[in-house]
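Incident review: delayed structure delivery

Summary: a single-chain prediction request sat in the queue longer than the usual turnaround. Root cause was a stuck worker, restarted by the on-call engineer. No data loss occurred. The affected request and its eventual output are reproduced below so the record is complete for anyone auditing the incident later.

Affected input:
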Amino acid sequence: MNTEQEAWAWTHQAIKKVQAENNRSADTHLYKVDLPSHWGVDLYVKDESCHRTGSLKHRLARSLFLFALVNGWIHQGTTVVEASSGSTAVSEAYFAQLLGLDFVAVMTRSTSPEKVALIESFGGRCHFVDKADEVYSAAAAIAEETNGHYMDQFTYAERATDWRGNNNIAESIFSQISHERFPEPAWVVVGAGTGGTSATIGRYIRYHGHATKLAVVDPEGSAFYPAWKNGDLSTVTGRSSRIEGIGRPRVEPSFVPGVIDHMIEIPDAASVAAMLHFTELAGMSAGPSTGTNLWGVWQLVAQMVAKGERGSIVTLMCDGGERYAGSYNSPAWLAEKGLDPAPHLTTIAEFFATGCWDEGRGSA
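Output delivered after worker restart:
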């Protein structure tokens, strides 16, 4: 077998390994969360923490590896490099290990120690930078130095997944909710991380002719919300998000504003409050990006209740709260970062007591 044949044989086997991993994986659960029955609104949370690597990013990492393999960007011995705030890097480290490849994750120093430990547990190496806008150039430089491949989730997230179906997250949601009393959601609510999830879901909704609307939530200071609001995709904020895994200092190439019906900017402390409240409400421990989703969900539920609209809303549990034991689940850490969830917990309590959303206290 010549060198070219050996290279093709390795790629063929690598693709089969990634596909086999997908075939072994059951779909993630879609849980119904009980709300006051007189509201007439049903909430469903798709638990993406069930994946082997514990987050929504497992889907993305699988798609990115397949995309890179079929494009001839990854070969036997290639060092895979990614710019990631944590969860994508955890999932990519897993797939790199599956294929016997070295993996380097470039991230800010503020990334939770729990995520760093997970990356290293899958054989990955972490390279730290001080500012979020430094991850791109650092990742590209390491890829060049190692003659490796910079995966670049922020560019390829929206194109690596087949948005028409093929068991993507949107197709899974609509299949799982099909036997519920409101089988076509009024809203699907997701965060703006890379932009890839919102692009996939928004395109799927339009392609299949659903009446469902897509709402995207974004942490305060992130570039996505002002860019969508002002119609200027050149927006740069220069600020790192305090909600790990979502929010960017620039508008990423994978962000597709045209498929989004509504965006909500979420205060960071409100994301933490909604995350903490979710444990009490549903008995599920989630991370802060799930809290961002839920803060937006409560506003949309309140709008539906106020208008007398009945229907369902679907959102995502992006990862589990165990990854944030020393950060967002630590009162001392929150106090150090100036994140006080107490006023926002009051907002949520008042909402559940009255069905009304206090715009002055909680809305973005």
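Verification: The chain has a mean pLDDT of 93.
Action items: add queue-age alerting; document worker restart procedure.
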